[in-house]
Amino acid sequence: MSVEASWDHLRSLLAFARAGTLSSAARSLGVKHSTVSRHLAELERSVGSQIVHRAADGLTLTTAGERLMNAAEGMEVLLRQAQDDIAGRDRLIQGTVRIGAPDAFGSIFLAPRITQLAAQHPALNIQLVAMPRVFNLTKREADLAVALAIPQHGRLLAKKLADYGLGLYASPAYLSRSRPIRTLDDLRGHQFINYIDELITIAELDYLDEVSPYINARFQSSSILAQLHATVSGFGLCVLPYFLAKQYPDLVNVLGREVVLKRTWWLLVHEDQNELSRVRLVHQFIYDTVRQNLTLLQSP
């Protein structure tokens, strides 16, 4: 590589690879669109190869571009490790760690417990993105992610957090005005709550077919928290994680022995980010916190 290929050029390449467009990359770097475009062109001259394929529908990295991006990521990690050493971050953890997590896990389970970690490390900033979606760690959408499945692609490290249980719940108000439910066959004709079918991007969130093939949801939401509140209000029956339903002790676990679902959380980190002391710290905190609360997560 020519000495003309500066770190600023490589940062533009990394920003483009993670953001997907020149304009988004420019915003993330706080520079002009034309600056990122110029940096990519100068990189191509430096390495003597095309690193970006230009088409009518946008830009994509070529094979050479992907190889250069991987090398740039390695340089980025070495730079961060050097900054860690210089700043003594093994002794004083500081900086920002972004956690991606499903909405119930992030909002109800993790957020109330993160206070302990923050109190121990006052220079650590924590960002929690609690949404029912798949987080792309390669594009740095998060430093760590709690996921229901292990992605098939990417340089990711996966560690099993825990299995957790789910059951079928309803409010006393709904059950008092509805036909009795004694068997699975009795579920026909009852009102159900679930995710929006066409917006389910994680197969593990599709619950109702496991309960019964004869039921459909009359109320649907992309948020499990909205589903919870609809259940509490008496709208109908809903599959909820045990730990979430326990927030409302009046909720009734319907057909508790017959409707028992299980899912698994995985803790994901990009192998480059795993070298950072602040990321390792948060990774270990999440793992330890989950393992200390297995009864809450696994028992109705």
Automatic annotation (TrEMBL):
GO terms for molecular function: DNA-binding transcription factor activity; sequence-specific DNA binding. Gene3D superfamilies: 3.40.190.290, Winged helix-like DNA-binding domain superfamily/Winged helix DNA-binding domain. Pfam families: HTH_1, LysR_substrate. InterPro entries: LysR-type_TF_proteobact-type (IPR058163), LysR_HTH_N (IPR000847), LysR_subst-bd (IPR005119), WH-like_DNA-bd_sf (IPR036388), WH_DNA-bd_sf (IPR036390). The keyword Transcription regulation applies. One of its GO terms (biological process) is DNA-templated transcription. The keyword Lyase does not apply. Residues 7-62 form the HTH lysR-type domain. Keywords: DNA-binding, Transcription, Transcription regulation. Belongs to the LysR transcriptional regulatory family. This is Transcriptional regulator, LysR family. It comes from Methylobacterium nodulans (strain LMG 21967 / CNCM I-2342 / ORS 2060).
